[in-house]
């Protein structure tokens, strides 16, 4: 019997990548002194772009 990890949907992995990198961008912008509103908007836009990119281009062919 071979034990394998469960299959995870591409949408979930895309969301997790986008969430992690969006959070990293948001914290990075706050660390360099960008305003909270600007940092939030840029992080949300990055989240959306990363999610779409990983969703469409990520994974096996």
Description:
Helix content is 72%, strand content 0%. By secondary structure, the chain is mostly helical. The protein has a domain of 40 residues. Helix 1 runs antiparallel to helix 2.
Overall outline: elongated
Roughly how much helix do the residues carry, as a percent range?
over 70%
Helix and strand string, N-terminal first? HH
The parts where pLDDT drops under 50 for at least 5 residues are none
Category by helix and strand content? mainly alpha
Largest sheet: none
Overall pLDDT: 91
What's the end-to-end separation, in Å?
28 Å
Question: How many distinct beta strands?
Answer: 0
Q: How many helices?
A: 2
Q: How large is the radius of gyration? A: 15 Å
Strand content range: under 5%
Could you name the key traits of this structure?
about 0% strand
Short description:
By secondary structure, the protein is an all-alpha fold. The chain has a domain at 17-56. 72% of the residues lie in helices and 0% in strands.
């Amino acid at each position: 019997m071979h034990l394998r990890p469960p299959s995870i949907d591409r949408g979930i992995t895309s969301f997790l990548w986008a969430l992690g990198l969006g959070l990293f961008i948001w914290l990075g912008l706050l660390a360099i002194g960008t305003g909270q509103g600007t940092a939030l908007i840029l992080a949300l836009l990055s989240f959306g772009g990363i999610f779409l990119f990983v969703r469409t281009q990520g994974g096996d062919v």
